[in-house]
Amino acid sequence: STQFRPQPRPGVMEIDAYVPGKSHAPQGVAKVHKLSANENPLGPSPHAVEAARAVAANLQLYPDGAATRLREALAARHGLNVANIMIFNGSDEALALLARAYVGEGEEGIYSAHGFLAYPIYIRAVGATPVAAKETDERSDVDSILAAVTDRTRIVYLTNPNNPTGTYLPFEEIRRLHAGLPKNVLLVIDAAYAEFVRRNDYEAGVELVAGNENVVMTRTFSKAYGLGGARIGWIYAPSHIIDALERIRDPFNVNAVAIAAGVAALDDRDHVERSVSHNEHWLRWTSEELEKLGLRVTPSVTNFILIHFPQDERYSAAAADAYLAARGYLLRRVSAYGFPNALRMSIGTEEANRGVVAALAEFLKA
Ligand code: PMP
């Protein structure tokens, strides 16, 4: 009987654990191109690597628990208030702690139906109910989010640009969402892919955080900065929210290597610029080439593309995924995100992008 052993709290066993993108090719594949986790194909800034190495010589020392250098560097870089910045072990940690601080048992959290799958995990982990708002044309839909609000709603997660669709909601729409939400509901704008959006109206997001008590923006070093392995995320938030999160975070949630790498990466503006330009070029090229093959792709402003496959079983996403993996190209299945017949492809190196297009051309001819 299971009666005499510790029982997880209600809801925990209903959670589907997060499944990351593939990182291994089938046996015998010589060269692997990992295009399943939206990582930077140019790698991290060499300065960040150097800084991480330098810190590694003194790993007996605890990190600065307040990550002050990194918060100051971010404040200077983005023209923000240091006091409104907080650093996390990846933006995942921020997203989780926001649920832990603001959502309780019997309450609800809303996210977009085709949104990042970590949100329902964080909502369930605090004993609350995740509510998926439907989308229109593969885009988050402000009206359906607002329609999902009840008096039990405590948090709304909105990814912008969205993963896995790569779509973007103009800030006017986010303002409209915010205006329609009750004041006691926390609006979390997850801007993990912000750096790739050239039209940058993220200033408006900053304004929305600064001018209100219930808006938080989350950012990460995992994508454009190429530091996914270092786990560095941050938020820009009103002081009262920082105050709450400071009380529940782990004492040293951000490690010393991450802090040093983050500071150096921020300083290397050329590397980010190169990364964003590389992405821009290959995003356009790859999208166009895939369309020439007759595949529908969701127009993306990010560093990944959602590729839709024909209804024909021979040419399904599952078949394409296996075909590509056998040739070393690892893409992401997105069935769990509500796209059973699509694959998400991160923009890779020139070699990887050309390779995927060539392989898919063969696959579709076969
Ligand atoms: N939000 C979104 C939308 C993401 O795609 C990711 C990366 N999978 C994250 C947050 C988490 O990023 P990290 O924890 O590496 O900062």
UniProtKB/TrEMBL annotation:
All residue ranges annotated as the Aminotransferase class I/classII large domain in the record: 31-360
Cofactor(s) annotated in UniProt: pyridoxal 5'-phosphate
Example GO biological process: L-histidine biosynthetic process
Keyword Disulfide bond set for record: no
Pathway in which this enzyme or protein is active: Amino-acid biosynthesis; L-histidine biosynthesis; L-histidine from 5-phospho-alpha-D-ribose 1-diphosphate: step 7/9
Keywords: Amino-acid biosynthesis, Aminotransferase, Histidine biosynthesis, Pyridoxal phosphate, Transferase
Pfam families found in the cross-reference section: Aminotran_1_2 (PF00155)
Record-listed N6-(pyridoxal phosphate)lysine modification sites: K223
Origin: domain of life: Bacteria
CDD domains, A to Z: AAT_like
GO MF annotations in UniProt: histidinol-phosphate transaminase activity; pyridoxal phosphate binding
Catalyzed reaction equations: L-histidinol phosphate + 2-oxoglutarate = 3-(imidazol-4-yl)-2-oxopropyl phosphate + L-glutamate
InterPro entries xref list: Aminotrans_II_pyridoxalP_BS (IPR001917), Aminotransferase_I/II_large (IPR004839), HisP_aminotrans (IPR005861), HistidinolP_aminotransfase (IPR050106), PyrdxlP-dep_Trfase (IPR015424), PyrdxlP-dep_Trfase_major (IPR015421), PyrdxlP-dep_Trfase_small (IPR015422)
EC number: 2.6.1.9
Protein family according to the UniProt entry: Belongs to the class-II pyridoxal-phosphate-dependent aminotransferase family. Histidinol-phosphate aminotransferase subfamily.
Quaternary organization: Homodimer.
UniProt name for this protein: Histidinol-phosphate aminotransferase
Encoding gene per record: hisC
